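Students often ask why we bother encoding 3D structure as a string. The short answer is that it lets us treat folding as translation between two languages. Here is a chain of 140 residues written in the first language.
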Amino acid sequence: MSRAEAVALLRERVPHIEESIAVEIVEFLGRLPLAVDLAGGYLATNGTPPARYLALLREAGNGIGAYFDESEEERLGYRHTIATVWEPTRADLAAASPAADQLLRLCAFLAPDPIPLDLFTAHPEALPEPLAGAAADPAT
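And here it is in the second language, the structure alphabet:
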């Protein structure tokens, strides 16, 4: 996407974002439409100030970037992945519900195969806490 298109996409979700912050966010994300749309969704739903969100993205990108070497960055054409955009959301989930974060990570590990529900509920003792406690409780 062009810079103007990416900023316009971000502004669809966050109409009052400062131009300079919007440009920094979309450039950081390589103007990738999915990444920009996810960033806009995060900002629109959780109330994080855009400048703080940009700082969170940079922190996430630095952590995730350690998994890539320079040749892979060159091959991909960008350093930051959708995982960079997901990290602030995942961190919010982990803070709100550690069991949900564990479940998300386990499902991501098992993907893309179908995951039967009883995989978690039939043997909760095989799961780490706090996910084991949540899986053992029929109310959750």
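Translate back mentally: The two ends are 42 Å apart (CA to CA). Keep this in mind for the problem set.
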